[in-house]
Design a protein that fits this description.
eight-stranded parallel β-barrel; binds calcium ion; binds 1-deoxynojirimycin; six-stranded antiparallel beta sheet; 22 strands; alpha/beta
């Protein structure tokens, strides 16, 4: 790949659930055709890549993460030709496409599993999955979906054995000890790379191998397989992003980022600390989490989500401490019945009680920290959720496009819709939608667009060094992002009260300072530089003169036609 910078360095990635995004054929279910028709919106917004949650044939017991054919498209979403059209159109708009790669398990309706249960015990066909006569094997592996399952093993009448499932009983774990399984799954990677995809988000990647006496997470054999996968991807000779979904502490997530393994890994520890910082109004622990991540793997290889299609996963004390979990539980708005498995099952805006200030603050941090910021569809509008729907469906409701019927998501009669559009007070799609927010200059949507435009114009935020600066205020985090030709200073107030403080900018003594988002001049840098940040306020400042080529011109960029 040479020394050229890969496309994902610092890229902003937009996650969407195709079934809930846009319905192109009027059957009530979002599809690839509908998504293709919304690419111009995504380009206008300014995201660089889209990650699609699974699009493969599936009985949908787990939102499509239960797959019956890895090399096809779910008929409700379209077909391989529709995928080709989507990919070509996305590339035409300069948008990369990332697929979810579910390596760990299949659906129990996958032909491999059906064949395995009927095959003779100990045969190669049976061995495609992990079987046992004893349901107490691997007893140290926690049950992940504890809301739905009480064991990692399920009895199969036909096979006369138990099979392992780290997730739902409908999702038997593949047996990576079996070389046939490894080769088949590498073949899946080839299949999609030959069709031109730009990356994979590797679902549930820690769980590929098991070992007695361990949590069965991130074992050496799992890493060995991932290195094989990386080599296979590299053999295609183009920049293909591989990101690990490993909900693990930073020291356990770090090995996925070895040079010969994956390019990126989600930092869910940081996500929890971002919420804890807002919940407590203090930033010390957040600073520690940032330092830890940068010490472990410097630069922009951490994928940074705020929310996604799962619950806000806080874990059992293994991911972040019980204290952090308590701070979040006490400080964020949850409402009744929103605790699922190991976390809080709410979208971002309701978690923040509908307050746009911490919402902007958290995204402001995400867009200025080193890494790959992830934006979950609808969060650019402050979309709400639908409590009472099953499992994680409350967070997976249709995108709100217009104030018209079904929020412009689909022309189908409402009983046919994949999930009900949001009409909850404060979040009704007649108010919270793309069309309305596009027209309101102060809307969250236009704010996101401005932020993304500024980020593009400030390469220091994309690939600059990261350094925490001394802050004399417990609620205010201060850091710099620098490249040779540009320095951006960031300060953010995590609390709901205003904060004023002096910053020691003596290392830039006398240099020009300008607020970067709106372009207003500040006094030159000094050892005693005064700032005031309102409740949940933050700013980005440019320090010094910047070269002509990167001269900041967000207003010009934003006034260009959509
Ligand atoms: C993680 C995915 O994000 C989640 O939605 C899914 O249920 C599990 N992996 C199992 O595939
Ligand atoms: Ca449809």
């Amino acid at each position: 790949m040479g020394t050229r910078e890969p496309w994902w360095n610092g890229a902003v990635i937009y996650q969407l659930m195709p079934r809930s995004y846009a319905d192109g054929n009027g059957d009530g279910i979002g599809d690839l055709q509908g998504l293709a028709s919304r690419l111009s919106y995504l380009r206008w917004l300014g995201v660089e890549a889209i990650w699609l949650t699974p699009i493969y044939p599936s009985p949908l017991q787990d939102g499509g993460y239960d797959i019956t054919n890895f090399k096809d498209i779910h008929p409700e979403l379209g077909d391989l030709a529709a995928f080709h059209r989507l990919l070509t159109a996305a590339h035409g708009q300069g948008i990369k496409v990332i697929l979810d790669l579910v390596l760990n398990h299949t659906s129990d309706l996958h032909p491999w599993f059906q064949r395995a249960r009927w095959a003779a015990k100990g045969s190669l066909e049976r061995d495609v999955y992990v079987w046992s006569d004893d349901p107490h094997r691997y007893a140290d592996a926690p049950v992940l979906f504890r809301h739905f399952e009480s064991s990692n093993w399920e009895w199969d009448e036909v096979a006369g054995q138990y099979y392992l499932h780290r997730f739902l009983r409908h999702q038997p774990d593949l047996n990576y000890e079996n070389p046939w399984v490894q080769e088949e799954m590498l073949g899946v990677v080839d299949f999609w790379l030959e069709r031109g995809v730009d990356g994979f988000r590797l679902d549930a990647v820690p769980f590929l191998f098991e070992a007695e006496g361990s949590r069965c997470e991130g074992l050496p054999d799992t890493h060995a397989f991932l290195r094989k996968l990386r080599a296979r991807v590299d053999a295609h000779g183009r920049d293909v992003l591989l990101v690990a979904e490993a909900i693990q502490p930073v020291d356990e997530a770090k090995p996925y980022l070895a040079d010969d393994e994956l390019h990126g890994a989600f930092n869910f520890v940081l996500t929890a600390h971002l919420f804890a910082a807002v919940a407590s109004g203090t930033c010390k622990e957040l600073c520690n989490a940032l330092e830890e991540a940068q010490r472990a793997v410097p630069g922009c290889r951490w994928a940074l989500p705020l929310r996604n299609h799962d619950e806000l996963w806080l874990g059992d004390g293994h991911l972040v401490s019980e204290d952090v979990i308590q701070v979040i539980r006490a400080g964020l708005h949850q409402g009744q019945g929103h605790w699922l498995n190991w976390g809080i099952n709410r979208r971002l805006a309701p978690l923040l009680n509908g307050d746009p200030r911490p919402n902007r603050l958290l995204h402001g941090l995400l867009y200025s920290l080193p890494g790959m910021p992830h934006l979950y569809y609808g969060d650019e509008l402050g979309m709400g959720d639908w409590p009472g729907l099953r499992d994680r469906d409350p967070n997976r409701t249709p995108m709100a496009w217009t104030p018209a019927r079904n929020g412009g998501f689909s022309s189908a009669p409402d009983p046919l819709l994949v999930l009900p559009p949001i009409t909850a007070p404060g979040y009704d799609y007649r108010v919270v939608n793309v069309e309305v927010q596009k027209q309101l200059p102060g809307s969250l949507l236009n704010w996101h667009r401005r932020m993304l435009t500024c980020r593009r114009l400030l390469p220091a935020l994309r690939r600059g060094t990261f350094e925490l600066l001394e802050s004399s205020h417990p609620s205010v985090i201060v850091y710099s992002r620098c490249i040779e030709t540009m320095t951006v200073l960031v300060a953010a107030n995590l609390s709901g009260a205003g904060a004023s403080l002096h910053l020691d900018l003596s290392r830039w003594q006398g240099e020009r300072t300008r607020e970067a988002l709106w372009g207003c001049e500040y006094p030159p840098a000094s050892a005693d530089w005064f700032i005031y940040l309102p409740a949940y306020g933050f700013s980005w400042w440019l320090i010094g003169e910047v070269e002509e080529s990167v001269e900041f011109s967000a207003n010009d960029a934003l006034s260009s036609p959509a």
